[in-house]
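Here comes an entry:

___
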Amino acid sequence: MRDISVQHSLVKYSFFETIKANDGQIAHLEYHQRRYEFVLKSFGVVAFKDLREYLFPPSKGLFRCKLIYDAESIEVVYYPYEKRNIQTLKLVVNDIIQYKFKATDRTQLDTLFAKRGKCDDVLIVRNGLVSDTSIANIAFESEGVWFTPKKPLLEGTTRARLLDEGKLFERDIAVEDLKNYGRVALLNAMIEFDIITQENAGEIIC
């Protein structure tokens, strides 16, 4: 009976991993495997597939591998990667948005992204604390140490790796404290750790 209920609970949902492949080499797959298993475990699934068996990226060029999955199936689509130029962010407040799992349904995120105005992306604020942009985790530098919001919308794989390596630390970051930080970096599987401003975190807010 449990298997039937789990299957029904996943009928409406599918999830994805964005995986970087450069000249056929897949980056940091262990972190994507870990999150894939975490998502399915959260729905009661205990049988997992080895993602390596589904990834066959082109041998030349930089590609975004979009691995779409549910409890039973996996599909992979490959896209040549073109980096979005993000230099400015608009603060958008939404205290109730949830995106714990990397779901293919991004309606809530797309709705907030549409509010960016002339900015390149949004920085989502929940209960007075900054969280993520629409496509990336974020980090702020203070006195040579990099901090990332303690309560992100999504615990990204690059964020998890840098925390494990001791290169990044968690902290609650209030909107009014942004002026106290220097450099700002965006983090996701494709851009990894991309510093977008060099001096004052307030510069990115438009």
